[in-house]
Amino acid sequence: MEKRSIKEALKDNVIYFLKWTMVSAVMGTICGLVGTAFGYGVAYSQHFFKSHGFMLYLMPVSGVLIVLVHKLLHQVGNKGTNLILESISGAEKIRLTTLPVIFISTILSHLTGASAGKEGAALQIGGCIGDFLGDLLKFDERDKKVVIMCGMSGCFGAIFGTPLAAAMFGMEVISIGVAYYAALVPCVFTAFLGAEISHILGLHAEAFTILSIPDFSFQTGWYPVLIGVAGAVVSILFCTVLHNAHKLYHAKIKNLYLRIVTAAVLFIALTLVFGRDYCGAGFNLVEEAITGEVRYEAFLLKILFTAVALGGGFKGGEIVPTLAIGATLGAACGSLLGFAPSLCAACGMLALFVGATNCPVATLFLGFELFGFEAMPYFAVTVAISFALSGYYGLYSSQKFTYSKIKTEFINIRAH
Asked: Which helix (H) or strand (E) is 401 found in, with range?
């Protein structure tokens, strides 16, 4: 009986590996191609906005078009990334029209400079592809959840060029405290294949160079602790402002068109007062922060610009703005403390990312892929501190905390 059980287990493992290798090949190829097309679309939109200053004043027009697209494809009230998370943790259905809606809406948002990212949109596109393929292959509910996670990882990897972080993020973001390791092989394979296809097609991975990395010691080890604390506090602030802006818009302005036009007018006014540095996803701010040249209040202004745009209905996602907020916060802390602003900017990015997404392993991988391994001790300390102190707040209200962050106990609550 024992020998038969071992044989059966080995058989199941082999079938699992072969099955998900084939599925990953299909998913990685599709996500790589769609993700590359989306990446080029966003890049072209951003370039067009920068080279044609008048596009800012067409923001109300792009807002109206975004609402029209949602209405035409019956996607009004779409929950965005929360829908993808709920399709994995629950039984929410992802409609195929989600893909063109988020694709077009994100392009329109970036064409007119809205403070929005692209990775959040990539998660939705990948989840939609996974859901469709799962139905096409007639997968049961458990396998369908895995293929949705594959899609998230594949498109994230293709858009951002960080397959390790993408693979772990797809498994880790749904339920904090429990990683879906049954999806490890397919998520890793899909993420790497998606990233490689986008690379072959000319979509460059994001990467930054830290100007100076002091030796890690008891004397220097306090700095990442302080940045971790600051990152936790600001991540709570960002999540709170973002969610409350969304609620305020919906409570005060019921009409969809009027709501997004109001957001556009407010955004234009903010841009006229504070300049265009805070328009778009925010990688310009990351680059300035890494070189140590950024205003102290930049992280607060980026929070404001992002809340005004996303709360009012512009699309794209929150992840890149989160990184920009973290980088500017870290650089400001480094300048005030007189310690390696470039390194502090990198730590700040990771502090905000882990505080807002609650994915510590994916965050560490992201740091290694964006900056290299040399600053590992600083990254590890910062991520641990920010994760522990950021509480149960998060960008995604459908994210579940299965286990407590501070005790070995089951809590099963949603993010604030």
From this structure: strand 400-403
What is the rounded distance in angstroms from the CA atom of residue 169 to the CA atom of residue 163?
10
Show Cβ contacts of residue 7 under 8 Å, excluding neighbours closer than 6 positions: none
The DSSP result for 152-198, as a single string, is: HHHHHHHHHS-HHHHHHHHHHSSEET---GGGHHHHHHHHHHHHHHH
Q: Measured between alpha carbons, how far is 252 from 375 in angstroms, rounded to an integer?
A: 46
Q: Is 212 left (phi over 0), alpha (psi -120 to 50) or beta?
A: beta
Instruction: Determine the Cα–Cα distance for residues 87 and 95; give it in Å rounded to an integer.
Output: 11
If you write DSSP's letter for every residue of 259-272 in order, what string do you get?
HHHHHHHHHHHHHH
- Check whether 9 has a pLDDT greater than 50: yes
Q: Name the DSSP class of 414.
A: E
Length of the chain: 416
* Token code pair at residue 67: 């609402």
pLDDT exceeds cutoff 50 at 168: yes
**Paired tokens of 351:** 């502090």
Residue 1: predicted pLDDT: 41
Among residues 125, 200, 199, 207, the alpha carbon closest in space to that of 165 is found at: 207
Task: Give the pLDDT confidence score for residue 159 in this predicted structure.
Answer: 92
Q: Residue 194 above 50 pLDDT?
A: yes
Conformation bin of residue 208: beta by default, left when phi > 0, alpha when psi is -120 to 50: beta
Best CA proximity match to 185, nearest among 139, 135, 150:
150
> pLDDT exceeding 90 applies to what percent of the chain?
82
Residue 372: what residue type? G
Under the banding of pLDDT at 50, 70 and 90, the label for residue 4 is: low
Phi, psi of 352 (to 5 degrees): -70, -40
Is the pTM for the entire model greater than 0.90?
yes
pLDDT of 3 above 60: no
Say whether 391 sits in a helix, a strand or coil. coil
Nearest one of 38, 25, 35, 39 to 133, comparing CA atoms:
25
Note whether 380 and 225 are within 8 A (CB).
no
